[in-house]
């Protein structure tokens, strides 16, 4: 059975989505989704264990040898991302029961879990496949189901947000498939390893740089990298709270993984950064994203929108690590991919607890909530400290590696800017803390603490923020192995 784990990682949630759709009872659909998400998480843990102990794991679909057939290949890079995606799904699924029932009509809840499982399938498929066109197919599965998840929001503006997401996502997908088509026209293959071997022979043609450009723009749209980010704030703001937490912890992280695969595995670091000089574009955009999006977040009155703009700034940190194109820089980017997934998912889950009781995401209406919902607000504060980068949290570990990477390259102003960016995060997190803890609750308002079914998943992620901040040996070690694999060091 262990030999078939790569295909089971995809087939189980894909088939489960078809089974979930006709289920009429909301609680039954939820229980089924929880079972499947935890099964996917267990498989991801097993695959990571295989990769760390035995090296790269390969699986040929239908026994068709690569490059003729589709191959799934799991190395430290995508094993780490598989763990992140399935882990966030496994935590959000139990949380979703009460949260979804409070925000979505009962008859539409089974469709929500169907879209959730399809989105999980697509994200896992993008991560595990070793074939670029297969990656595109899974990207479309994930994207279409994401649009449905966003459109399920109870605010009518969720439909507008989903439509904008659809339009910009379709443009990004078009750019990606054009880039893949150009590469196939020049090499006659779609297998990633085969592409990496054949591209150097045709790299001097005009077609390959054009393909590189199309893929960069297309994936950057999916990633919501500044200035191609306009779809994300509304999508996160108006989607159901559980869907926001899931997408914030997974979708953009998988897009970062796609970027890493294209730049380092397929085109290679030498072509991407020496020939195409990607760092001259990526580094400035990353710094602009960190500062501009953090400043915009400071002035938001909607808590979900504030965290959405914060996510855009955090994407800038990941892009910054990638732009440094060094082992330490890539380690920082990959590590922040994991760390931001758990910190931002935790923050959005704590916001979902607030929405469940308060029925509002306005920061002004959170006055006095620190006393009325102490566990929820404590979770938000700890998640916020991680976002700022306070020591003993995962955010500190990420930013420490980013600063080290910048100093290794002699970019001390970049290191200073990373610290300043953290101070901007302090400003918008403090606005929430001040309102919740230092302003009195409105007269006559009584708000109960969120139910245990919502608090437990939230605190699982909060405690993970602390644990991996105190003991980063595993995460930093896997991130380092993944970075060295992408750079071809020691392989």
Please bin the fraction of helical residues.
Answer: over 70%
- Spatially, the strands of the biggest sheet line up as 1-2
Overall spatial form: globular
Number of strands: 2
Q: What is the H/E string?
A: HHEEHHHHHHHHHHHHHHHHHH
Quickly count the helices: 20
- Poorly predicted segments: none
* Class computed from helices, strands and strand pairing: mainly alpha
- Percentage of residues in DSSP E strands: under 5%
The biggest beta sheet reads:
2 strands, antiparallel
Radius of gyration: 21 Å
First-residue to last-residue Cα separation? 28 Å
How would you describe the overall organization of this protein?
By secondary structure, this protein is mostly helical. It is 77% helix and 2% strand. Strands 1-2 form a two-stranded antiparallel sheet. Helix 4 runs antiparallel to helix 5 and helix 14 packs antiparallel against helix 17.
Strand-helix topology:
Elements (H helix, E strand, L loop, with lengths): L4 H16 L5 H29 L2 E4 L10 E4 L1 H28 L5 H20 L3 H20 L5 H31 L4 H11 L4 H17 L8 H7 L2 H26 L2 H7 L3 H20 L4 H21 L3 H32 L10 H4 L1 H15 L5 H15 L3 H27 L13 H19 L2 H15 L4
Antiparallel strand pairs: 1-2
């Amino acid at each position: 059975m262990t030999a078939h784990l790569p295909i089971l990682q995809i087939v189980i949630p894909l088939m489960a989505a078809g089974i979930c759709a006709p289920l009429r009872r909301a609680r039954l659909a939820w229980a089924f989704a929880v079972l499947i998400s935890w099964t996917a998480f267990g498989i991801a843990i097993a695959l990571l264990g295989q990769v760390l102990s035995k090296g790269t794991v390969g699986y040929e679909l239908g026994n068709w040898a690569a490059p003729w057939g589709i191959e799934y290949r799991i190395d430290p890079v995508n094993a780490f991302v598989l763990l992140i995606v399935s882990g966030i799904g496994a935590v959000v699924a139990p949380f979703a029961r009460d949260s979804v029932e409070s925000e979505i009509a009962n008859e539409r809840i089974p469709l929500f879990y169907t879209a959730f499982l399809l989105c999980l399938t697509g994200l896992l498929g993008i991560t595990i496949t070793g074939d670029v066109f297969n990656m595109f197919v899974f990207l479309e599965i994930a994207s279409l189901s994401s649009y449905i998840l966003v459109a399920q929001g109870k605010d009518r503006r969720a439909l507008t947000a989903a439509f904008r997401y659809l339009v910009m996502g379709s443009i990004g997908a078009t750019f990606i498939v054009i880039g893949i088509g150009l590469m196939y026209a020049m090499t006659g293959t779609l297998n990633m390893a085969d592409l990496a071997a054949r591209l150097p022979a045709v790299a001097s043609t005009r077609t390959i740089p054009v393909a590189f450009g199309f893929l960069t723009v297309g994936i950057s749209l999916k990633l919501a990298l500044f200035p191609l980010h306009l779809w994300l704030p509304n999508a996160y703001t108006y989607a159901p709270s559980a869907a926001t937490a899931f997408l914030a912890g997974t979708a953009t992280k998988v897009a970062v993984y796609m970027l890493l695969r294209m730049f380092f595995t397929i085109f290679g670091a030498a072509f991407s950064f020496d020939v195409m000089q990607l760092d001259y574009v990526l580094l400035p955009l990353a710094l602009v994203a960190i500062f501009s999006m953090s400043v915009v977040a400071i002035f938001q009155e909607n808590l979900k929108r504030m965290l959405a703009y914060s996510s855009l700034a955090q994407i800038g940190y990941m892009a910054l690590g990638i732009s440094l194109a060094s082992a330490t820089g890539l380690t920082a980017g990959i590590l922040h991919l994991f760390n931001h997934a758990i910190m931002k998912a935790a923050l959005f889950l704590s916001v979902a607890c607030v929405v469940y009781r308060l029925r509002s995401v306005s920061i002004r209406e959170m006055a006095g909530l620190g006393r009325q919902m102490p566990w929820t607000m404590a979770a938000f504060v700890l998640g916020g400290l991680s976002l700022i980068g306070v020591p003993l949290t995962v955010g500190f570990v990420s930013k420490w590696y980013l600063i080290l990477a910048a100093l290794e390259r002699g970019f001390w102003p970049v290191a200073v800017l990373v610290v300043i960016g953290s101070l901007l995060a302090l400003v918008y997190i403090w606005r929430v803390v001040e309102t919740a803890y230092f302003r009195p609750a409105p007269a006559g308002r009584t708000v109960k603490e969120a139910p245990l079914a919502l608090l437990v998943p939230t605190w699982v992620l909060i405690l993970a923020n602390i644990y991996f901040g105190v003991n980063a040996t595993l995460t930093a070690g896997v991130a380092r192995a993944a970075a060295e694999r992408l750079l071809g060091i020691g392989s």
